[in-house]
Amino acid sequence: MPASTPANYTEATRGYGARLILTPDIASAFAELDRLSKEGLVPIHPFDDPLIAAGQGTIGPTINGTTLTMTLRQALKTGQVNRVPVIAGVDRDENLIALPATAAQYTASVDAQYGKYAPQVLARYPLNRFDSPFIAFRTVAADSDTVCPALVTDQDLARWMPVYGYEIDNGDAPPASFEPANEPNGSYHVAAWFLNPVSPALDANQQVLQNQEVADVTTFARTGNPSAQNTPIWPAFNTSADVMSLAPGGDSQSMSIAQIEQAHNCGFWDGIAPRP
Fold it and tell me: What predicted TM-score, i.e. pTM, was given to this entire model?
């Protein structure tokens, strides 16, 4: 684990009887994982592993298939869900798959993740259109695995309940311990949901975003609608097909799903994605 991992995580890991190796950053942690696997240990990826993914309860029945008998997607398709107002969305640059640092690693990561579709993916996301292999794969992973599927989830939710969608467009969020320290992580996983006091303190632009989020979430909890005073109107996805682009510096604004679909190649990804 990176040395910056919160103490409650490291203590829990040791509590399970594990021998914990702390590294300077997440890239070093993955390098150590590779080294240990070459010594004969069986590596378990922290997120790109079928059992780990199933344990998150989004692509497989939660717990044991008895307590919750179907996946989230199946429940939304059949309507076997509670009808409550929902805020649902994703970060623009959320990458939960791989961290390539070279051109060869970028190609290998695309091949491993997309199989027979890899040539089409590489043609649509050529490396020479990005500053680095890391940014290239970050973009591919976010478009295919989080941003475009989030729109599908919003549409499924909207069949049964009021939905307020969002995309976090916070490209300069404070660094996180679970992201590579020296890479441009963009709007990474939970990059903007700073609903509690943050140390070190947020800068002025980030503070405006935190103020909006706290106001919107508390207003949503009280009324079922997140449009708070002194913040942009957050339209319901059901009637507008818009989502809220959450951005620092007072730049949050409503964005149509057509804009998101074009920016993230959702037509392409929807065309090759398996249907739930």
Answer: 0.76
